[in-house]
Amino acid sequence: MLEWLALARGTLDRAAERRRDQDWVEATWADPRTRVFTIEGGRVLVSYDPGPALVFTPSGKAPEGERYLLGVDDEGVAYFVVRGTLPTIEGAERAGLRRVGALLGDQDSGLLTHAVALEHWHATNPYCPRCGGRTEVTAAGHVRVCPADGSEQFPRVDPAVIMLVRDDQDRVLLARGPSWPADRRSILAGFVEPGESLEQAVAREVREEVGLDIDDIQYLGSQPWPLPQSLMLGFFARARGDQELRPDPEEILDAAWYTRDELRDALESGRIVSPGPLSIAAQLIMRWYGGPLPDMPPF
Ligand SMILES: [Zn+2]
Asked: Which residue ranges does the record assign to the Nudix hydrolase domain (predicted)?
């Protein structure tokens, strides 16, 4: 399994069983030890001295806005995020998950990943899918309920598979998506369809994107990717025998096999750029490569 995934490092007890206990949530919010940060359009305040960290305030100094309970640490300190206007605090900078998700410590990275996912879900799902009426936040930010019909909506997560395909010579397949910069290369990925297993999705996506039949599918780990609402599930797979690459021009602009030496040369010369450390793609490629990749972008 992959050992380090930037966005899968959360350490808090999410306290899911306390979310509907309104008295407990209110008392916890009012507790002077409670730590709060603000999110606005995916951005939060981060300080860099001594190292990258979220900027917290006590709840009494938090801005107005919806409050979502993110969890409780080993000392019993609770963490909330508020959807509101980012305050101006000296020494703090505005940053989003893409920029700081891999830089923050384990606890803060987990808090930010959770907060970004919740904020996006609330912002994009204000209405009841049954009656079209406006829904209300409940369960400390983890459920929306319809006052007209009582139906509950839970945060959505879309599973996506991402797979490193090797051939019989242990070369890796890297490709360029249609909207990527000319030098960007990564492994293949795609969303799981309704009624499909993860393994079926891996095989289908590889066949659709580059025309290869694969086997030996191995699961290596997952991480949330709330940009905006995916869960990335990482795999290795092996292309059967000697098959010709047939990239689908609508999904893949360039696909090629690389030995480890060829990949190192291509990265060091700048002919291609790898995914950054935030992504599970980079971790899968490093697992195959056997160590850090040369000239990896910062995020
Ligand atoms: Zn409704």
From this structure: 155-286
- Between the CA of 153 and the centroid of ligand 1 the distance, in Å, is 10
> What is the distance in A from the centroid of ligand 1 to the CA of 85?
29
Question: Same domain, yes or no, for 74 and 167?
Answer: no
CA–centroid distance, 128 to ligand 1, in Å, is: 5
Going from the Cα of 143 to the center of ligand 1, the distance in angstroms, rounded, reads 14
- Residues, CB within 5 angstroms of ligand 1 (ion): 128, 130-131, 133, 146, 148-149
Indicate the number of domains in the chain: 3
d(CA 278, CA 169) in angstroms, rounded, equals 28
Same domain, 130 and 167: no
In contact, 280 and 5? CB cutoff 8 Å: yes
pLDDT, tens digit, 9 for 90 and up, residues 191-212: 999 999 999 999 999 999 999 9
Q: Report the pLDDT value the prediction gives residue 238, as an integer from 0 to 100.
A: 98
265-283: b (≥16 Cβ within 10 Å) or e: ebbeeeebbbbbbbbbbbb
pLDDT (average), residues 151-174: 97
**189 bridge partner residues:** 162
CATH number at residue 166: 3.90.79.10
Q: Residue 140 belongs to what domain range?
A: 125-155
**38 and 111: one domain?**
yes
Q: Does 207 share its domain with 283? A: yes
Please provide the DSSP assignment of 65-104 as one string: SEEEEEEE-TTS-EEEEEESPPPP-TTEEEEEHHHHTTTS
The string of pLDDT tens digits covering residues 170-194 is 999 999 999 999 999 999 999 999 9
Q: How confident is the model over 246-256, as pLDDT tens digits?
A: 999 999 999 99
